[in-house]
Amino acid sequence: MPPESPPPETYLSRLEDLKTVFPVPVSNPVLDGYFVHTVSRFLDLVDDLKSSAPLLGQIRPEHYETGPAADFPESMSSVAEVTRNLADYCRGLTVWSHPNAQVNVIPPTSIPSILAFMVAAMYNPNIIWDEYSARFAEAEIQSVAMLADLVGYDPRGAGGVFTFGGTGTILYGCKLALEKLSGGRIMREGVREDVKIVSSGASHYSRLNVAGWLGLGTDNLVTIPTTRDHEMSLPDLEDYLRQALGRREKIAAIISTMGTTDAFGIDDLAGIVRLRDRLTQEFGLTYRPHVHADAVIGWVWAVFRDYDFAANPLGFHVRTLSSLHDSLARLGDLSLADSIGVDFHKTGYTPYISSAFLAKNREDLALLSRHPDQMPYLYQFGYYHPGIYTLECSRSGAGALAAYANMRLLGKEGYRILIGHMVEMAEMLRERLEREACLLVLNDGNFGPVTLFRVYPPGVEAGAAFEREISDPAYGETLSAHNAYNRRIFTLIHERAMRGEGVLLSWTDAYRHASYDGRPGPAIPALKSFILSPWTDLAAVDLVARQALEAREHLASEPAWG
To answer: How many CB atoms lie within 10 A of CB 22?
Structure first.
């Protein structure tokens, strides 16, 4: 008889190989070591991309210019091959901890917060329910309570959840406002009438997303003008509210921005709340417009609420101390808001995404709830069922645990040191820029980590030119030329930074608009330094000013500008 042929290979034999690409469920010294080695090897490959530039390797624009050309692969690859491929995809990433990375409100991340995301990636907790997330759910409860205590809410009466970003916090605030206005009917019946949301012209553009996605429509989003210090104008707000309420229009929410993205403008939250309360009584409203504090950047200044400014135990310079104190005059009032948005992935030093929505009254969240009968495969037991009232059904526990990690790691003291340092470096930068007659700081009344400035050509007095740019329609052609000049300055600085020879700044197309007798005029762009790295020092600050001056000198040799 001929010998039997070997049995065909089945998926089970391949499955044994495939199991090695996952962390093992039961401790195994060999396979656990392989996992640790793979992570370590990947980090080595990424570390090899570091240089004097605030980037990992170099960006390859051809990858975007040619467009995608990848087919879904047929065969499996190896962990080692994919690891090398993933490291290559890290090319061009900004190193946010680099002293010369002053791009935007994106921080370096602490080691414990990275670990929180790493373990969440391994064990995939979903905090829709404590059964699916174990103590990650407890981390959310504890983090919300700590935040409530920090901003001045009663931790026993406040509530909140972690959500998908700053937009999510505004969405929750406005949705809660709508339900409070309607007595909970909109969740069931939908929006049946025009309802207004009010915010400032300097507030984050996510307000447009929120108004549109909630079904209110962006036409029902009312924009209030801002002052020269980028805060909502209270007289203009009162004028609008009086007219709207006189027409019997309904105001669901007023969004108070507690630290604008471009200039760190801070709205007068206390003034807004007082105005809301006064007009509610005066017009005999049967509801009270909800005030949401969009404090995704400014929330962390609350760590200075009980700082001894007189003794100044951390030894901040006088100018820094004054800036922190002046900011706290507004940011210490967060507890007046009905709800608050917080981003740990901004000024909290965690990875994306770690955003928290806080409600002053936990009972308000019941207005967003669904009946458990609508989710028959959930909540048969356990102690924490936030999925009854959250927008998200899938909600990673990573952001909550990372926030918890950093609050435990840093405490008030650590955050005071970090925030104090970035404000101190920003103040030193402003002081350096102010020495040069051709450089003008634009947000000198906003005391945060961001500095907006413009550069002016030879023969132009910066202060006088700016005053005409912002108010004189006859100066429009010159404004356009100065805008182009500043854009060229920024391009030169950016190119230099990409070579590892300078500070990587950012650019805003419209730090504000000119105002011509109450009419909006052209946009006024600016160069922007946003300092968040604890490694940023006086040398990096001085380099910002020097490279602006050197770029200005270089322009004198270019035919278009000489």
So the answer is: 11
Residue 388 preceded by cis peptide, ω within 30: no
0.85 surpassed by pTM: yes
In whole angstroms, give the CA distance from residue 485 to residue 468. 17
Question: For residues 435 and 427, what is the distance between their CA atoms, to the nearest angstrom?
Answer: 13
Q: Do the bridges between strand 290-294 and strand 339-343 make them parallel or antiparallel, or are there none, so unpaired?
A: parallel
Alpha helices for 351-461 (secondary structure H): 398-434
Strand 290-294 relative to strand 250-257: parallel, antiparallel, unpaired? parallel
Q: Considering just the CA atoms, what is the radius of gyration of the chain in Å?
A: 27
pLDDT in tens, 345-361: 999 999 999 999 999 99
Longest dimension (CA), the chain: 104
Instruction: Determine the Cα–Cα distance for residues 300 and 374; give it in Å rounded to an integer.
Output: 38
**Chain centre to alpha carbon of residue 259:** 10
CB count in 10 Å sphere of residue 64: 9
Which pLDDT tens digit goes with each residue over 398-454? Answer: 999 999 999 999 999 999 999 999 999 999 999 999 999 999 999 988 889 999 999
CA of 307: how far to CAs of 149, 226, 266, 406, 532, in Å? 15, 30, 20, 19, 21
